[in-house]
Amino acid sequence: MKVAFIVFDNLTMLDFVGFQDPITRLRTMGYLPDLEWRVCAQTPEVTDGTGLRLKVDEIHQPLEGYDLIFVPGGMGTRSLKDDEDFIGWIRSATPCRYKVSVCTGSLILGAAGFLEGKNATTHPAAYDLLAAYTPKVVRERIVDEGDLITGGGVSSSIDLGLYLCERFAGTEARQKIQKQMDYPYQAAFPVRH
Amino acid sequence: MKVAFIVFDNLTMLDFVGFQDPITRLRTMGYLPDLEWRVCAQTPEVTDGTGLRLKVDEIHQPLEGYDLIFVPGGMGTRSLKDDEDFIGWIRSATPCRYKVSVCTGSLILGAAGFLEGKNATTHPAAYDLLAAYTPKVVRERIVDEGDLITGGGVSSSIDLGLYLCERFAGTEARQKIQKQMDYPYQAAFPVRH
Question: Percent of chain B having pLDDT more than 70?
Answer without folding.
Answer: 96
